[in-house]
């Protein structure tokens, strides 16, 4: 998806080992095999529904600060997709798992989810626009790559097929490509210091992607 010599290509290369760890981690391996327990997927989908609300807010902040009208539209539509379209997917799973709106609201964000959402919102509000885009990009890109990878090795009649098909699909891939292009566009006119700040944000978000899936797998919770 990334063009050679761009920020995105460099960022992916710097974090390639982290992506391989994410691709092979137990949650994603068992998801592809269709052996992931219902309880683990339930924990994941519940926290991901919370996360998407925060992610939508972060995209809305990026839209408000975008320098070009086309990018305002892109990020605003991304916020709408995070809240409306993907929550429709999650809504089906939530119903299947007996999660009511009341129980969803009563469930606190897990430590990884809380960290990720809080950091994204702080970055999109308080850091330069180009750094905000670098912080948002891994959620798009890593999900697309993981979705495509799992789609290629998923067992037939996988119980999580709806999730797999969403993130391996062409519509999501187009959104990822647009986000990569926007981030590279911002990096191309950023100072070397700002580009390094972008790399730090991209790497931190990549680590948080790992922690999110790992937390759902292990049942990460607040000790107090």
UniProtKB/TrEMBL annotation:
InterPro entries, per the entry: Haem_Oase-like_multi-hlx (IPR016084), Thiaminase-2/PQQC (IPR004305), Thiamine_Salvage_TenA (IPR050967)
Entry-linked Pfam families: TENA_THI-4
Gene3D superfamilies in the record: Heme oxygenase-like
Ranges of residues in domain Thiaminase-2/PQQC: 26-218
Xref: SUPFAM superfamilies: Heme oxygenase-like (SSF48613)
Top-level division of the source organism's lineage: Bacteria
Record-given protein name: Aminopyrimidine aminohydrolase
Underlying gene: tenA
């Amino acid at each position: 998806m990334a063009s050679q010599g761009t920020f995105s290509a460099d960022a992916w290369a710097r974090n390639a080992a982290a992506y391989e760890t994410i691709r092979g981690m137990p949650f994603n391996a068992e998801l592809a095999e269709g052996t992931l327990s219902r309880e683990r997927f339930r924990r994941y989908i519940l926290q991901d529904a919370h996360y998407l609300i925060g992610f939508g807010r972060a995209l809305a902040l990026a839209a408000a600060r975008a320098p070009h009208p086309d990018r305002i539209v892109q990020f605003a539509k991304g916020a709408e997709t995070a809240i409306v379209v993907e929550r429709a997917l999650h809504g089906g799973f939530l119903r299947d798992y007996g999660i009511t709106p009341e129980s969803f609201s009563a469930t606190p964000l897990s430590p990884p989810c809380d960290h990720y959402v809080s950091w994204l919102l702080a970055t999109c509000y308080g850091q330069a626009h180009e750094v905000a885009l670098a912080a948002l990009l891994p959620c798009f890109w890593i999900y697309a790559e993981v979705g495509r990878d799992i789609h290629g090795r998923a067992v037939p009649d996988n119980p999580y097929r709806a999730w797999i098909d969403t993130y391996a699909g062409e519509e999501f891939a187009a959104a990822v490509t647009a986000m990569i292009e926007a981030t590279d566009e911002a990096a191309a006119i950023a100072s070397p210091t700002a580009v390094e700040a972008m790399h730090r944000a991209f790497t931190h978000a990549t680590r948080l992607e790992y922690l999110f899936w790992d937390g759902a797998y292990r049942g990460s919770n607040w000790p107090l």
